[in-house]
Write a structure and sequence with these properties.
With about 375 residues, this protein is of the alpha+beta class. The chain is built from eleven helices and ten strands. A hairpin with a 2-residue loop joins strand 9 and strand 10. Helix 4 packs across helix 7 and helix 9 packs antiparallel against helix 11. It is globular, with a radius of gyration of 21 Å.
Length: about 375
């Protein structure tokens, strides 16, 4: 659908979609109801915004496709981080599927994705956070397939997905295997949505496996070797989180410009106060730096370790810049900044998920530290 299209054109298409289907007034209702209507995602697929890479990418490189997806995430988050997160959760399913699926699996599942059925990606363990192979879901080999038991936590979109990828510990050490499951499979269930403060309209659940049988044909990729695909997928996921963070930076600048021009204090416009303009200009600096880091990393091989580390650094920088920007926007708005109807208040609360999602930033700093030590040695 987007053959020979660039990221700028896709961003324009995304903005037109939002202006028609996800106005600020509708987004406010979704927050109150803690749910995004299913038809929004059907329309996403109809417009090709969640199906990039599944078909019609003639004339595009892998980097082109990644940049287009990042552009979509940026525009969505500028309007509503919850909407961006919901599509990012599905993107984790889609990217892992595209990395590892065989032809039979593609023939079976891609038609569903093209018509708007969603997928979810289950990795996080109940007590292991960013170390998925230490606990959570286990896979035991049985005749004709596998038996899965345990749970995965903080699964975005898991309640509304038709297809799931469940990553399970399948052997000793770090041996992981990825499995394709479908809603309705015996023993597979989800919890009620979590009551989240941040990004409330994006529903997050636990995925529970109770002696779930998965036939061998539903193994995604190679047995016991899913960590390679998982790490490549997290590279893309961290770029999407960075893109969402960039959208928050965009939104903060858009909100602050008119406010600082028109709002008066002691007879002066807010944009005449040096401390406040310093906050505003730093947001712009971080916006430009985040955009450059995303573009640079997106043009590199996601399977390469160096690219994975660059994506990690990009996610850390952009997410922390977004949280700081939203906090300072609230400060500049004063008492108005903590009112529910103000977008800066929602951006401030929502930005926290970017700090902890796709690996909490303190954990990711430890990952970068190990990588840097290894480079020296």
């Amino acid at each position: 659908m987007f053959s020979n299209t660039n990221a700028t054109e896709v961003a324009d298409i995304t903005q037109k979609f939002l202006d028609k289907h996800a106005t600020p007034e509708k987004v406010h209702v979704w927050h109150r109801e803690k749910s995004i209507p299913a038809e929004i995602f059907k329309q996403f697929a109809a417009d090709g915004l969640t199906t990039i890479g599944l078909e019609g990418t003639e004339g595009l490189t892998t980097s082109d496709v990644i940049l287009m997806k990042c552009a979509i995430g940026r525009i969505l988050a500028k309007r509503d981080p919850s909407l961006m997160l919901e599509t990012a959760g599905y993107a984790l399913f889609r990217e892992h599927f595209l990395l590892a699926a065989n032809e039979k699996q593609r023939a079976r599942i891609i038609p569903d994705l093209l018509k708007g059925d969603r997928g979810a990606w289950a990795l996080t363990g109940p007590d292991s956070g960013s170390t998925p192979y230490t606990s959570g879901t286990t896979a035991d080999k049985v005749k004709g397939g596998w038996k899965l038991n345990g749970s995965r936590e903080f699964i975005t979109g898991g309640r509304n997905a038709k297809h799931l990828i469940v990553n399970a510990r399948s052997g000793s050490g770090k041996e992981m295997t990825a499995f394709l499951l479908e809603t309705g499979t015996e023993g597979l269930s989800t919890s009620n949505p979590y009551d989240k403060v941040s990004m409330p309209s994006s529903q997050t659940v636990s995925v529970i496996c109770d002696n779930v049988f998965v036939p061998d044909e539903n193994v995604l990729g190679k047995e016991h070797q899913a960590m390679t695909d998982i790490m490549a997928n997290l590279t893309l996921g961290r770029l999407y989180i960075a893109s969402g963070s960039l959208g928050v930076l965009d939104a903060c600048l858009d909100q602050l410009g008119p406010w600082m021009r028109d709002r008066k204090s002691a007879g002066r416009s807010l944009d005449e106060f040096g401390e406040l303009t310093a906050m505003q200009t730093q947001i712009y600096v971080n916006q430009q730096a985040s955009a450059a880091m995303i573009a640079n990393t997106a043009r590199q091989n996601p399977l390469a370790e160096e690219t994975q580390m660059k994506a990690t650094a990009t996610k850390i920088f952009a997410s922390e810049a977004a949280l700081e920007a939203a906090k300072n926007a609230v400060i500049i708005f004063g008492g108005n900044g903590v009112m529910r109807e103000q977008q800066v208040a929602r951006l401030w609360v929502d930005s926290m998920i970017y700090i902890v999602g796709e690996g909490a930033n303190p954990t990711l700093r430890s990952v970068l530290s190990r990588y840097l030590r290894k480079r020296v040695n």
